[in-house]
């Protein structure tokens, strides 16, 4: 790998369409195609309410991120903002936590690739496909950022088109009986089988961890800020549109599925997406959906590798990671950071291979990491606002609606989800592994004397 001495900055090669689809690509992964079935079992039709409320909270979090990113568009944005507004330790923890969160998530995605490929190649070991996926995604990330963005655009587009097609056809069946002998199914399945809240409010609360996991990745727009052309225009448009698109894809798709099929049958007869396509007479539905789900896993992993390498680049620039992570290839890609990330994921594939439990815990651990990141974004934005004069606050180009109440309510919601994860046995492991990782990071921070470096840097700045 050749490192360019002339290239000191990441290339701004991403267009608005790239970053919009990248964030969608990261957020619409196995959480929708696989995770939704388990969430429906917990909450029944009321899962729609869980997605809608969580989506509203995510909207305020994204606006908070956008407010800071438009004013200061940098790579690894929320780690840098945490460093600037909450202190060096917060920035250090946030950067490394986000790297860990996406390494864990990508481990799930590439391991899932091995499972999906067995649909066509049942005799080939899963680890072969998982390894092939890791090598392929790492290679793609070594391309110039514009080429990477183009590939990710088409990756994400495949699954988006599939979901939109399913929603349109499903609505045709609900309203006009298309594919159902001309008999409109209606939406009575949403309350027929035990009511809209068949498992009570407890079921909805239990589903929130999986629901929030589904939104993981939407914050990636902030990570792209250092490589997007015209950040003010592109980021504001992308943030406003991505939230609504994700809400439509999740709530819209699940509304259609649960209207056509009783919620208590979903997951028992195969993928709800496969069932919907088979219902309208597409007999190769299983193969089509398997291809789309495979693409979804690859797309999410692709975005994850991108964001983790940029986060390591940002940490190295702040002298909180080895300086080699800040070195760029001739194409303006943080190559060494990419390789280190890929090696970490390789170890994770091995862990999944030897222990199924590790794979089962992934979603809850990743959700804890995401909650930390989202909470830091909100806290940093609150401090960012407090440091501005009233005049500068009025001049902000992109503001959080209903500030500061929306930020405080969103923070309370995140704390509530974290508490629920500790209350329910299946997700409690996340509140062991997540904090243990943060404690390890704090220990390393002080052991390496990073706190002294930051104090010295602050003193020099004051003297200067």
UniProtKB/TrEMBL annotation:
Membrane topology: Multi-pass membrane protein
GO cellular component: plasma membrane
InterPro entries: AA-permease/SLC12A_dom, Amino_acid_permease_CS
Species of origin: Saccharococcus thermophilus
Name recorded for this polypeptide: AAT family amino acid transporter
Domain of life, per lineage: Bacteria
Coiled-coil positions: none
Residues that span the membrane, as ranges: 21-40, 46-65, 99-121, 127-145, 157-179, 199-221, 242-261, 281-301, 333-353, 359-382, 402-423, 429-447
Keywords tagged on the record: Amino-acid transport, Cell membrane, Membrane, Transmembrane, Transmembrane helix, Transport
GO biological process, one term: amino acid transport
Location relative to the cell: Cell membrane
Domain Amino acid permease/ SLC12A stretches: 18-449
């Amino acid at each position: 790998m050749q490192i360019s001495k002339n290239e000191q900055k990441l290339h701004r090669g991403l267009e608005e369409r790239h970053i919009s689809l990248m964030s969608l690509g990261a957020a619409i992964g196995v959480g929708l195609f696989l995770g939704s079935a388990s969430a429906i079992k917990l909450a029944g039709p009321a899962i729609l309410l869980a997605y809608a409320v969580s989506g509203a909270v995510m909207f305020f979090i994204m606006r908070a991120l956008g407010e800071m990113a438009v004013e200061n568009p940098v790579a690894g944005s929320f780690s840098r903002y945490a460093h600037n507004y909450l202190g060096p330790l917060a920035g250090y923890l946030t950067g490394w936590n986000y790297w860990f969160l996406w390494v864990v998530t990508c481990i799930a995605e590439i391991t899932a690739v091995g499972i999906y490929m067995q649909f066509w190649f049942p005799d080939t070991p899963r680890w072969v496909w998982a390894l092939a996926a890791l090598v392929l995604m790492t290679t793609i990330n070594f391309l110039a950022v514009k080429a990477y963005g183009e590939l990710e655009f088409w990756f994400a587009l495949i699954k988006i088109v599939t979901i939109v097609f399913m929603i349109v056809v499903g609505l045709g069946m609900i309203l006009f009986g298309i594919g159902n002998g001309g008999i409109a199914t209606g939406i009575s399945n949403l309350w027929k089988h035990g009511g809209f809240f068949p498992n009570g409010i407890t079921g909805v609360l239990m589903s929130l961890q999986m629901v929030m996991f589904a939104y993981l990745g939407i914050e990636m727009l902030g990570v792209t800020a250092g490589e997007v052309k015209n950040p003010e225009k592109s980021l504001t448009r992308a943030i406003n549109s991505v939230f609504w698109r994700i809400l439509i894809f999740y709530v819209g798709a699940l509304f259609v599925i649960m209207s056509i099929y009783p919620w208590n049958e979903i997951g028992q007869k195969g993928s709800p997406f496969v069932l919907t396509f088979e219902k309208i007479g597409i007999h190769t539905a299983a193969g089509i959906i398997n291809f789309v789900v495979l693409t979804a896993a690859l797309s999410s992993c692709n975005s994850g590798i991108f964001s983790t390498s940029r986060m390591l680049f940002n940490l190295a620039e702040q002298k909180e990671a080895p300086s080699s992570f800040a070195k760029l290839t001739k194409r303006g890609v943080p190559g060494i950071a990419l390789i280190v990330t890929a090696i970490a994921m390789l170890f994770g594939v091995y862990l999944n291979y030897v222990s199924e439990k590790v794979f089962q815990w992934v979603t809850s651990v990743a959700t804890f990491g995401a909650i930390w990141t989202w909470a830091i974004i909100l806290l940093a934005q609150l401090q960012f606002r407090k440091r501005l004069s009233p005049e500068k606050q009025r001049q902000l180009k992109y503001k959080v609606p209903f500030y500061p109440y929306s930020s405080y309510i969103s923070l309370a919601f995140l704390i509530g989800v974290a508490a629920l994860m500790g209350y329910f046995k299946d997700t409690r492991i996340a509140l062991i592994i997540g904090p243990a990782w943060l404690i390890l990071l704090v220990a390393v921070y002080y052991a390496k004397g990073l706190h002294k470096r930051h104090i010295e840097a602050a003193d020099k700045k004051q003297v200067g």
